[in-house]
Amino acid sequence: MRQAFLLALMISLLLTAGCKSHSRQEENFTNWKEQFLLSDELSITAVVKASSDDTVSKYKLVYEKRGDTESVEILEPELISKVKAYIKSGETELSYDGAVLETGNLAEEQLSPMRALPTFIEFLEEGHLKGVWTEKTNGENSLTAELQLSDGSHMLLWINESSGQLLAASIHGSEAAEIMIDF
Questions:
Q1: Per-residue pLDDT tens digits for 70-91
Q2: CA dihedral 147, 67, 35, 154 (to 10 degrees)
Q3: What are the residue boundaries of the structural domains of the chain, listed by start?
Q4: What does pTM read for this prediction?
Q5: What CATH class has 27-182?
């Protein structure tokens, strides 16, 4: 009887410790997210790999946000480098070497490499936090968060636990497409 009581006490203590750890991880992620989104000006350089069915493509992109205007510029592959998309209120313009092409409203566009980094920001701003945990990534502890948007798409995000540096994100849309982002 005494052993059963001690076992029950140990289990409840472990569960309580786990809950405290989980809430601390949620708090750490929430603090990181608030700090990350605090600025009106944001710049991210990342390698974006998009895959769907039988197609895989890889780009190095620069995302910038200044107030309510966002832009995505292609750095690699070199053949299409310097193409830049400007996004404001759902309207998009493509620019290359001074020439501008209006593309209209791309807000309903499916998940694509061009939309990957703006979608990443959308997840941080509007996504519902489904879970947070710690795991090893390349030999270091990372804070891993899962977020979901109202359309059912979800994102896994890995952040270096000690430095707060973005490591990677994986975005899965409602269609079969998957976007991997390496920061």
A1: 999 999 999 889 899 988 877 7
A2: 10
A3: 27-182
A4: 0.81
A5: mainly beta
